[in-house]
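User: My instructor asked us to take a sequence, write out its structure as tokens, and then describe one feature of it. I'm not sure where to start. Here is the sequence I was given:
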Amino acid sequence: MVAKVVPNGTAPSRARDLAELCLKAPEVTCRDTRVHFIRPLKERIVREVGYGLALEGASAADLVKSMQAKSEPAARKEKSAGEREQLFICSAC
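Assistant: Let's start with the prediction itself. The structure tokens for your sequence are:
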């Protein structure tokens, strides 16, 4: 609500002064002022959270895909080594 730079250590007392000033205003004014400042923040959160979740889901899917791709060559190597042993045994018979 207030953006002001104050000397070090005076912020709490300045905040109390501003709070007392706000309390002198009628209750409806205080409530409407709060709503006025909070509404744009809430709207932005609602608007952008869905996009953020979509990005997070896409990132997770890509991570799983890359992990599977890394593990597949090792599985193929193990499988092909096993097949070679079987072929070697069969050709020796």
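For the description part of your assignment, you could build on this observation: Residues 11-92 form one domain. Try explaining in your own words what that tells you about the chain.
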